[in-house]
Write a structure and sequence with these properties.
22% of the residues lie in helices and 29% in strands. Helix 4 runs parallel beside helix 5 and helix 12 packs parallel to helix 13. The radius of gyration is 26 Å and the shape is globular. About 2% of the residues have low confidence. An eight-stranded parallel sheet has the order 25-24-23-20-16-15-14-26. The chain has a seven-stranded antiparallel sheet with strand order 3-4-5-6-12-11-8, with no helix packed on it. The chain has a six-stranded antiparallel sheet with strand order 1-2-13-10-9-7. The protein binds ligand MIG. The site of ligand MIG has 11 residues, from loops.
Length: 770
């Protein structure tokens, strides 16, 4: 009933029952799927009354067993009472999942909160963080419908239940939660470094309706000197919502549009849906039929569902050949027209309806949606025949469907692979980028995925609303994604549905300035959310918020490079850095970017201050330069400020905001808080190609120490394979010590005191020459 083998020192594979369907790890080509057979000195197992006890260096970590019942199997794993359970992919509510039951079935989730379960991206993965070591994580290698009871039925048990005869699980064990997560990321896929522009500010709207409108938006950003790196085209750029087409009247010359934008320093990102319109003469449909590329509902019959274009068929991404075909379509219709990034939507897959008896409703839903009339959708859904769903909701995606994939000549029912459909599309998109220009970094934004999608794509949290609650809840939602291995993540800044207000948008821009992915997006029929829509006062404040992002770009980029090297996420819950401080396990309205910058956003209207928990450490307030913490402090936050803190013995890199991510970081400010010694990693590369993999990057480390009134800075050059964009490095000791004399590599340096902060200027050439 239960078998095991070791993957490496920290990881074991457990099989309960007899698995029937191809494992996602294989289908997705995750590193863990090909690593097998090694032994472990630290892990061992023992049998105990039908349980498999798992020991880490002789000490029990957890117990696992499989239980079958009525065509289902449950894999049960014990959790000590003192531990927290995080993860499960994208989820709403508190980060600690204990005491609740969840569903794994990727859907279009318009409910968002608080009862929104399941969500767009469910990953059957739980991270068990214990204040006292060891910690562990489990990934169930199954892509179908699953229910996860996290210590609800039994407070010391997680139960994964699926409608199949067997399950494969991977168990990751280590002394710290950081090591567990890092091991998990290593074995499910390390992130490929994205282009620098992916970290800039992105402007989106459902939809900018013509090439002229897009250009006027881009020009407005430049005129008003608001930095911008990308503009998104939502579904209306297509001809009748047919994928891989361009509307001949509104977007007649995509190459010219993308070229004109590029000249302004702005990239174009286009949406791509998965439904292919059933229409004779439409080449994507015709070609797909010839290739037998679509999901079937019976032996000859095609599976048909209703989405934007009306009746649609769906590419069968389980098949390699179909993925290659999709990749070719992305190349020839998007990338070769000058599109820089692709935005994969509706790939759960989300389908409005499949049943014939609700066909009419589905078509009406499409109509209401394209008019942006949400009340009409709500009404239709209320009135929709209840029969549309086996799993409880009329919203498709939760329906039990008669749909079949083809894998290695065999038919695989959709319900056993549903949750990896989007992840497979991401693989196709990645392939497109690689085959188009293999040395250029890719940018893929996907709404869904599975374990490992974090290595190839960014994800956003789907259709939130313009309300303070969704601003606030985006933080635990994103941190939960971080703890599930994702690094490039963001929520729609300003809120997607409903009407934003200037204060909400401003506070969201200040928060979004520290999301790894910073995108303003809003729906049809809602108040416009471009930064200039609320008058001069707000424009100035919003511009300042977006510039804040650009001044922190060096910190964000360099921290991203470090995070990738360490297989850790960029946006971190406090607990990941301060596991010895148990209060930090429950803090959900603050986070760290990298290991040194603490961000405490304002999440309420009218607030001009907030309580901030500063975990076990001293912190330098980035704005006032006072040294604070550990413990609770009151942070001032007038409308133009978001509370930020620099961790002791570390440094945060900033620069002057330019107009896009392509502007040089010159000078580069090293905001250090040595107590007594801070270390700063300096890094730069071309931001666009993969040449950094072959050594084309600059890297150096600064040691910044304070001894009485002496500031000692030492540099160590790690690599000079690229000429960095900064010529001058300004070291600022932001904890305001009294410094009179400074030395850089034993050369005397002048100290300038600016607002009580001692500053020392170093030429990059001095660092290079050592
Ligand atoms: O059913 O393409 O989450 O970002 O603007 C809605 C239109 C379809 C959902 C995405 C949203 C996008 C919208 N899409």
């Amino acid at each position: 009933m239960i078998k095991h083998s070791f993957i490496d020192e920290n990881v074991m594979k457990i099989v309960v029952g007899r698995p029937e369907y191809p494992a996602p790890s294989k289908l997705l080509g995750l590193p863990i799927a090909i690593k097998e057979g090694a032994g472990s000195k630290s892990l061992s197992i023992e049998e105990l009354n039908g349980w498999m006890r798992i020991l880490w260096r002789g000490r029990e970590v957890t117990k696992v067993r499989g239980v079958t019942h009525q065509g289902c199997i449950s894999l049960e794993i014990t959790v000590p009472e003192a531990c927290y359970v995080y993860g499960l992919g994208e989820r709403y509510g508190e980060m600690n999942r204990k005491g609740k039951k969840f569903t794994c079935w990727n859907v279009d989730q318009p409910m968002h909160l608080p009862l929104g379960d399941p969500t767009y991206m469910c990953i059957p993965y739980a991270l068990v963080a214990c204040p006292k070591a060891p910690c562990y994580a489990i990934l169930i290698d199954y892509g179908g419908y699953m229910e996860i009871d996290v210590c609800k039925e039994n407070k010391e048990l997680i139960k994964f239940t699926a409608g199949t005869k067997g399950l494969i699980a991977y168990l990751f064990v280590a002394d710290t939660v950081r090591d567990v997560l890092s091991k998990y990321i290593d074995l499910t896929g390390k992130l490929k470094l994205p282009p620098k522009w992916a970290l800039g500010y992105h402007q989106s709207r459902y939809s900018y309706l013509s090439a002229d409108e897009v250009l006027s938006i881009a020009r407005r950003f430049r005129e008003l000197e608001i930095p911008l790196d990308a503009i998104y085209l939502d579904i209306d750029y297509m001809d009748s919502y047919k994928v891989f087409t361009w509307n001949p009247d509104k977007f007649p010359e995509p190459e010219i549009l993308s070229k004109t934008l590029m000249d302004l320093g702005v990239r174009l990102v286009t949406i791509l849906d998965v439904g292919v319109k059933v229409e004779r003469g439409y080449s994507v449909f015709e070609e797909g039929i010839k290739r037998e590329a679509f999901i079937k509902s019976g032996s000859d019959e095609l599976f048909v569902g209703y989405v934007w274009p009306g009746a649609c068929v769906f590419p069968d991404f389980l098949d390699d050949g179909v993925r290659d075909w999709w990749a070719d379509l992305i190349v020839s219709n998007l990338l070769s027209k000058g599109v820089s990034g692709v935005w994969l939507d509706m790939n759960e897959p989300a389908i409005f309806s499949i049943n014939d008896n609700v066909k009419e409703t589905a078509l009406k839903i499409c109509e209401c949606l394209s008019l942006g009339d949400t009340d009409c959708i709500a009404k239709l859904l209320r009135e929709a025949p209840a029969k549309t769903s086996t799993y409880g909701y009329p919203w498709l995606g939760k329906q039990r469907v008669r749909a079949y994939h083809r894998y290695k000549g065999k038919s695989v029912p959709h319900e056993h692979v549903h949750n990896i459909y989007g992840a497979l599309e991401v693989i196709a998109a990645y392939k497109a980028f690689n085959s188009f220009k293999d040395n250029v970094r890719s940018f893929i934004l996907s709404r869904t995925g599975w374990a490992g999608t974090h290595s190839l794509a960014a994800v956003w949290t789907g259709d939130n609303q313009s309300c303070w609650e969704h601003l606030r809840s985006s933080i635990p939602e994103l941190l939960s994604l971080s703890l599930s291995g994702f690094t490039l993540i963001g929520a729609d800044v300003g809120g997607f549905e409903a009407d934003t207000t200037p204060e909400l948008l401003l506070r969201w821009l200040q928060l979004g300035a520290f999301y790894p992915l910073f995108r303003n997006h809003s729906s049809k029929g809602t108040v416009r959310q471009e930064p200039w829509c609320f008058g001069m006062k707000w424009l100035n404040l919003m511009r300042e918020a977006i510039r804040l992002r650009y001044s922190f770009l060096p910190h964000i980029y360099v921290s991203l490079v470090k995070s990738i090297r360490e297989s850790l996420p960029l946006m971190r819950p406090l607990m990941l850095e301060f596991p010895d401080d148990e209060l930090s396990f429950n803090i959900e309205n603050e986070f760290l970017i990298g290991d040194s910058l603490l961000v405490a956003p304002i999440t309420e209207p009218g607030a001009r201050a907030r309580a901030v928990y500063l975990p076990r450490n001293a912190w330098a307030n980035f704005w006032s330069h006072t040294v604070e913490g550990p413990g609770w402090v009151l942070a001032n936050s007038p409308l133009n400020k978001i509370p930020l803190y620099v961790r002791s013995n570390s440094a945060v890199l900033t620069t002057k905001a330019g107009r896009s991510s392509a502007d040089p970081w010159d000078p580069l400010y090293v905001n250090a808080f040595p107590k007594p010694v801070a270390e700063a990693m300096l890094y730069d590369d071309d931001g666009e190609t993969n040449n950094y993999l072959r050594g084309a990057f600059f890297e150096a480390v600064l040691h910044i120490g304070v001894k009485n009134d002496l500031l000692v800075i030492k540099s160590r050059l790690v690599r000079k394979g690229y000429a960095p964009s900064f010529h001058e490095v300004v070291v600022r000791v932001i904890s305001r010590p009294r410094i009179r004399v400074a030395r850089f590599n034993s050369i005397c340096k002048e100290v300038e005191i600016v607002n009580d902060v001692p500053e020392v200027v170093i030429r990059t050439s001095e660092i290079i020459s050592g």
